[in-house]
Specification:
Number of helices: 5
Structural class: mainly alpha
Order of helices and strands: HHEHEHH
Shape: globular
Largest sheet: 2 strands, parallel
Strand order of the largest sheet: 1-2
Strand content: 5-15%
Distance between the termini: 40 Å
Helix content: 40-55%
Low-confidence stretches: none
Number of strands: 2
Amino acid sequence: IFSIAEDPSALLTNYYNLYNTSAGNNFLESLESANYSDQLHKIKIPSLLLWGQYDFVVPSNVGQDALANLASSYKKLILFSHSGHHPMETETDAVEDEIIKFVETFK
């Protein structure tokens, strides 16, 4: 009923099929209400947050709050100025560059 799809229309169909099952509906509803903000202080490892400046699903102020609450000695929030919720799809090269810099810093 649900599979990985490269084609955007097939991906949309997969989401639709997932949402229209009892288990899928429960899962998606639990994602919508999930909030782990009160647990962020437990994260002490280097942390990189990648956010689209125009993300209206999870707005950038959520990323800023997350950054403030992380206990990491190294933490960084990158706002991608031409992206919404999926900067990894809309600014692929810039996201890749930031991830590589982060990994190179801590390898």
